[in-house]
Amino acid sequence: MSDDLKCPQCGSEHVYQDGSLWICPECAHEWNPETAASDAAAQAAQGGVRDANGNPLADGDSVTVIKDLKVKGSSLVVKGGTKVKGIRLVDATDGHNISCKVDGIGAMNLKSEFVKKA
To answer: What is the mean pLDDT of residues 71-83?
Structure first.
């Protein structure tokens, strides 16, 4: 086990190495620490939050959810194709960088990789 590595997805300390990849047994996320650092630097250089197609997002934009998303702690599902208006971009360490209100569900946070600009 590594004392200095944590899962970038869920923050778990219970990660293990398999070849060149590190694996989190709690969320099944796999990553290479060397390329992950360069990917984060590249995204910071691009500037801002981007949707699944690579389009830059800004506060107040409207987005469309591209796949069904389960809502944690409930039996509700945000269906693919749901349009969300008036998003806010937030800095979140867990990857949920969009704060919004979804009709029929309420306030929630989304990951930009699961939406496209409308």
So the answer is: 93
